[in-house]
Amino acid sequence: MSISNERVNEVLDIIRPMLQADGGDVSLVEVSDDGVVSVELQGACKGCPMSQLTLANSVERVLKEHIPEVTKVVPAL
């Protein structure tokens, strides 16, 4: 079963206010067939040294809670 971009964006909307409060944001780049979600951190989050923690502890955790088919969240290259 593939994960729809719409479904991922709905969950990202839950996370966005936290990121926006710190001057950042997140956008969906791609969802692979094996459940890997590629995102791009934007604004203040883009160059932040804590961005890897933000991805793992916030974005990935919340996506996995809401969409169990998500296997991993990675930064877009």
Quickly list its features.
77 residues; GMP Synthetase, Chain A, domain 3; 2 helices
Plain-language structure description:
- The protein has 77 residues and is an alpha+beta fold.
- It has a single domain, classed as GMP Synthetase, Chain A, domain 3.
- The protein is 43% helix and 26% strand.
- It contains 2 helices and 3 strands; from the N terminus they run H-E-E-H-E.
- The chain has a 3-stranded mixed sheet.
CATH topology: GMP Synthetase, Chain A, domain 3
What's the helix-strand series?
HEEHE
Number of E-type strands: 3
Shape: globular
Number of discrete helical segments: 2
Quaternary structure classification: single chain
CATH architecture: 2-Layer Sandwich
Topology (elements, then pairings):
Elements: H1 5-21, E1 24-31, E2 36-43, H2 51-66, E3 72-75
Parallel strand pairs: 2-3
Antiparallel strand pairs: 1-2
Helix pairs in contact: 1-2
Short description:
This protein is an alpha+beta fold and 77 residues long. The chain contains two helices and three strands, in the order αββαβ. It has helices at 5-21, 51-66, and strands spanning 24-31, 36-43, 72-75.
